[in-house]
Every structure is written in C-alpha cells, then in structure tokens.
Amino acid sequence: MRKIIGAFIAAILVEIAIFIVVGKVMGVFTTLLLIILTSVIGVIIAKKQGMQSVRNLQNSISEGNPPGVAIIDTFLIFVGGVLLVTPGFLTDLVGFTLIIPFTRKLYKPAIFYWLRKKLKNGQVFIVHR
C-alpha cells in the first residue's frame, strides 16, 4: 500500500513539474488548451475503442469462448479513458498507450503474470456456474 501511495504522490509531483515547464515554454493559455484538447481527443478514441472491446467481449461470450483477453482489453481501455480525462501530460501519455491497440499489447503480459500469481497463491477464485 505504501508503494501505491508513494507512486501516486510522485506522479502528482511530476505532473506539476511538467505543467510548470510546459507553461513557461508555451504559455498558460496554450498549455490549458493542449490539456483540454488531449482530453477530448482521448475520450473520443477511448469511447470508440471501448465500444469495440465490449462487442468483442459479447462475441466471445456468445461463441462460448473464454472472454479473458476481451475483459483485460476492456479494463485497460477503461483505465486509459479515466487517465485521459484526468488533467496532466503524464496521465495523458499513459492513457493513450492504454487505449491504442498496438501499445496496449505491451501491458497484457504483466497483467497475465499478475493474475497467474494471484491464482497460484489462492487470492483469486474463478467460479463456474
């Protein structure tokens, strides 16, 4: 828990530093417009990718296939969308990497590793009905 709080505080401090640097270089008004523009573009892309991901999830379930990968895609797109709405350049960068399909693939091995570890330790249960 301490690592998460420490990472959160560090991210906030980095965002503030980036705001200050970009504000000095580009000006306050331009910086604010850039933040708003990246948020709007990000939300549009996240909505499009999210809807596609939900359709893939529904197709997997209707075909009787395990929806594991589709669930992870949908989750990553959701987190990316939330990060894009959050003001900041660092959060926008991470958010865009989560919603763009070819960069989203970079996160999947870490998530699969984390899930396998939780399953092995008995911290996650799968219920079959």
UniProtKB/TrEMBL annotation:
<protein>
    <submittedName>
        <fullName>UPF0716 protein FxsA</fullName>
    </submittedName>
</protein>
<dbReference type="GO" id="GO:0016020">
    <property type="term" value="C:membrane"/>
</dbReference>
<keyword id="KW-1133">Transmembrane helix</keyword>
<keyword id="KW-0812">Transmembrane</keyword>
<feature type="transmembrane region" description="Helical">
    <location>
        <begin position="28"/>
        <end position="46"/>
    </location>
</feature>
<keyword id="KW-0472">Membrane</keyword>
<dbReference type="Pfam" id="PF04186">
    <property type="entry name" value="FxsA"/>
</dbReference>
<feature type="transmembrane region" description="Helical">
    <location>
        <begin position="5"/>
        <end position="22"/>
    </location>
</feature>
<feature type="transmembrane region" description="Helical">
    <location>
        <begin position="96"/>
        <end position="115"/>
    </location>
</feature>
<feature type="transmembrane region" description="Helical">
    <location>
        <begin position="67"/>
        <end position="90"/>
    </location>
</feature>
<dbReference type="InterPro" id="IPR007313">
    <property type="entry name" value="FxsA"/>
</dbReference>
